[in-house]
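Field reference: sequence -> structure
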Amino acid sequence: MPPNRCSSVEHHTKVAMTDTDLQLLRLLEARPELSQRQLARELGASLGKINYCLNALIAKGWVKAGNFRDNDNKLGYAYLLTPRGIKRKAAISVQFLRRKMDEYERLRHEIERLQTEVAAVAQVAAVAAAPAKKPR
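Structure field:
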């Protein structure tokens, strides 16, 4: 599954969480009052995608939507992480960190290989560009 999609409602127990799921959980934890439209804007995603992801998280029991329209603050809906959602967010964060650290190590090794290649090419180019000595 591409990293920019949220995990499926139907397969939530078997599918690994995506970066979008984690970003959405983080944002909901920090700013539960945001509307779906505001969440979409913050995450750079479509409104439909955010709606789908929120419904998936609600179906998993990780998020609950509360209607506060009768409240004087007129917040509308607030999306709150449930205790189960907070626990899963922590576990997902650990998985995410491990994955990013592995990616970092792979990139670090690739950069070292490229630096070695570039140094070798530069050395060959310098030798080739040096004026040839005339025999005496």
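Note: Confidence is low (pLDDT under 50) at residues 9-15.
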